[in-house]
Amino acid sequence: MKISVGNLLSAISHLIDIAQGRKEHAPKVTYISLQIAKLLKLDETRIKKIYYAAFFHDIGITVADKKFFTYHIDLSLAKKHCLLGYEFLQKLPLDRDIAEFVKYHHEFYNGSGAFGYDYAATPFVSQIINLADQIDITLDFSVPYYLQADDIREWVLKKKGILFNPVIVEAFLELAQKDRFWLDLYNPHLRQIVMALSPEDEVYFDIEQMLKFSEAISLLIDNKSPFTHVHSQQLSQTVYTIAKIMMLDSEMTNKLKIAGYLHDIGKMVVPNEILNKEGRLTKEEFFIIKSHPYYTKLILSQIPAFKDDIANWAGNHHERIDRSGYPEKLGKDELSLLDRIVAICDVYQALIEDRPYRKGLYQTQALGIISDMVKNGLFLEEEFLLLKRAVS
User: Domain named HD-GYP: which ranges (predicted)?
Assistant: First the structure.
């Protein structure tokens, strides 16, 4: 199995945009950065790194609270998400420069940015991404570009040699004279336009690299809450053990492990205050929580290599055979054994973990509750027996 890194970062950036309430931020920053880089005639190696770094630049923002501008203006929050993104990207089999570029994308020319580094200490690519980032958060996309393009150009020019590198500013000012630049930015299909600009020698992950990527993503998601900091990793291991018991081939076994790592990726759209709430959830909060498997399947289905299996195994983990689950009310005839395995492992893992409102249960207590669920027609005996063998 080969997975395009371009597909991965497009899908994950889409989820970040949903979580932050900002439409197509990553593709816009990537587009602006690439256009500036090409105008400056940067070499293909650096352009390729810009493509990945710009798409991934906000990967460290995992808090869904609609405070998009705050995370770009508050320097302490900017530094925090830059560091988290840097740590995440260091775990991936990508060029290490990409992590560095993301780490310093909130630095300004005069040293007034997140880390206090000036233009001499900040990678040139980070300075390009910073300008692109600032332009997107300054633009009001509810207003036609021709009513604000002059103001944007004037603002960037005023910040020349203060916030932004003069060389990069001049390139942007030349670029901003072209109507096509603005029309592309406003195009509702910008994501497809940017994907078409992907490097000719696209980077692909094999199954082992994808496992590392998935584990890194799971750490980002689980760290949203102190109560779930090992949830996806342990669930993934249990699913993997069951796959071994079933004597599935190595590719299927690893795919199931990936599904385990990524099953809660949709929680990026759920605010931390809901995930960590100690009291009873309101009706609205409960519906927000219930949306996370929908987003898991939506995002993973955008990755062609995941569409027919991993996206379903991960996205169906709250479905039940009696159609009492969510978000699709799928039933016995629509849920495969592998769907049900991920789902029953999720229940088990949740029961043995601490939650804001209770302590984690002992293994025997958790299995007793799941046994009752089998008797009540939520799961089948088949997956329950496999779970017991895996955790015994």
Answer: 206-392
| 3-state SS record for 272-314 | HHHHCCCCCCCHHHHHHHHCHHHHHHHHHCCCHHHCCCHHHHH
Distance CA 209, CA 317 (A): 24
Tracing tokens 């796959």 back to the chain, one arrives at 243
CA triple 135-138-142, angle to 5 deg: 115
Asked if the bond preceding 327 is cis, omega within 30° of 0, the reply is: yes
Q: Look at residue 67 in the predicted model and tell me its pLDDT.
A: 62
Token duo for residue 322: 């009696």
DSSP for 123-158, written as a single string = -HHHHHHHHHHHHHHH--TTS-GGGTHHHHHHHHHH
CA atoms within 13 A on the CB side of 114: 23
Tens-place pLDDT, residues 307-323? 889 999 999 999 999 99
For residues 34 and 213, what is the distance between their CA atoms, to the nearest angstrom? 25
At residue 201 the predicted structure's pLDDT band, cuts being 50, 70 and 90, is confident
Q: Could you tell me how many residues make up the chain? A: 392
β-strand partners of 160: 164
What is the rounded end-to-end Cα distance, in angstroms, of the chain? 32
Q: Is the distance from CB of 31 to CB of 193 less than 8 angstroms?
A: yes
Compute φ and ψ for 322, nearest 5 degrees: -90, 10
pTM: 0.84
Min mean pLDDT across 2-11, 23-32, 222-231 is at 222-231
- Candidates 255, 332, 263; CA nearest to 295 is 263
Q: Write the secondary structure of 45-77 as one string of H (helix), E (strand) and C (coil).
A: HHHHHHHHHHHHCCCCCCCCCCCHHHHHHCHHH
Instruction: Tell whether the model's pLDDT for residue 64 goes beyond 60.
Output: no
Shortest CA distance to 24 belongs to which of 60, 69, 63, 55? Answer: 55
Mean pLDDT on 104-121: 97
Q: How far apart are CA 178 and CA 194, in angstroms?
A: 18
Q: Which two tokens stand for residue 215?
A: 């584990």
Residue 28 to residue 34: CA distance in whole angstroms: 10
